Amino acid sequence: MEAESFFRRDLINSLAGYKSLNLIGTKNQKGITNLSPFSQVFHIGASPPLVGILFRPHTVERHTLENIIETGFFTLNHVTESFYKKAHQTAARYPFSEFEAVGLEEEFLEDFFAPFVKISPVKVACTLVETSTMKVNGTVMVVGSIEHIWVEEKGLLADGSLDLEAMGTVTCSGLDTYYTGKKLSRLSYPKPDQVLKEI
Amino acid sequence: MEAESFFRRDLINSLAGYKSLNLIGTKNQKGITNLSPFSQVFHIGASPPLVGILFRPHTVERHTLENIIETGFFTLNHVTESFYKKAHQTAARYPFSEFEAVGLEEEFLEDFFAPFVKISPVKVACTLVETSTMKVNGTVMVVGSIEHIWVEEKGLLADGSLDLEAMGTVTCSGLDTYYTGKKLSRLSYPKPDQVLKEI
């Protein structure tokens, strides 16, 4: 913990392992859209369906947070191997919409206020439920209610789970390293005196 | 959102994409150790170094949460391709230590109270900072302070970031599907008028 600051930042950032990667789409009241990459989106509950996002204090992604608080709407969009470099580039500080800046087409679905990424295989429409600020360092947690889900047909399995490998969804580590996933197996529900099966 | 309940559970659970996977090691005041898999460990800050964990309400992992609150100590341990099935099996309801039940050797390092997984390539010693309960559905967030880190030498890059692929760290989706990562690239810091480089 006495390491030099960049070394420490990179180590602590990659410590938990692989992270999910989503582009969050928002629009402000003036109609300007915004797109930014987030690796801290997680599962809060399935019934009601809720998602959580952590926003670091004082980071470049504050436009996204401001738009969510101002309008109450945002979208989550999976990032795939075919456009992860454009997704990375949306983190640059543009004075106009990142959709236009990096060349990702925006899409509006069913009159939902916030924009989706047209080529993304998983698109989720969310409305703001609550925000809370952590005392320890000012990190903001946003909880969203999942209102609509669009999934590319080849990515949706019969039981409802997603085939991330088939869709080419990427995962990331730290601040800048991208990976695809290679499936090992799906395992049966674990019980004390039962041998696990690949299902 | 009107889908049948198992379908909905699996869909919502895999919606954000790939997740990190860590085994959390704890020990209660009677000296009984516990080990359980968690896919919701995330980055809160690097300075001071903080980690967050989400605990679902009423799930099998409550022993872990009880031990953390009772003693103030826990460990994070990466899961690799060589023992992910044992890691999955630790989620079964055992009346004694999961280390013994699934055959993962426990290790104690530098007199830290909680046990580590001996064969894990990344071991992190944490102390409890705060817990908070989300009003919306009773999800509990634990914030821990990172006290010590052990990383297998081949996994630590010169700049401090971790080479997850070299260590064989696995990632998961939903409740039961495991993947290894295959590196695409590491990208330079994004700036508006600059072409991204692979670094």
TrEMBL record, chains A, B:
SUPFAM superfamilies: FMN-binding split barrel
Cross-referenced InterPro entries: Flavin_Rdtase-like_dom, Split_barrel_FMN-bd
Domain annotation Flavin reductase like: ranges: 23-154
Keyword set, alphabetical order: Flavoprotein, FMN
Cofactor(s) listed: FMN
Superkingdom of source: Bacteria
GO molecular function: FMN binding; oxidoreductase activity, acting on the CH-NH group of donors, NAD or NADP as acceptor
Keyword Flavoprotein part of the UniProt annotation: yes
Pfam families in the record: Flavin_Reduct
Family to which this protein belongs: Belongs to the flavoredoxin family.
UniProt name for this protein: Flavin reductase (DIM6/NTAB) family NADH-FMN oxidoreductase RutF
Species this protein is from: Mongoliibacter ruber
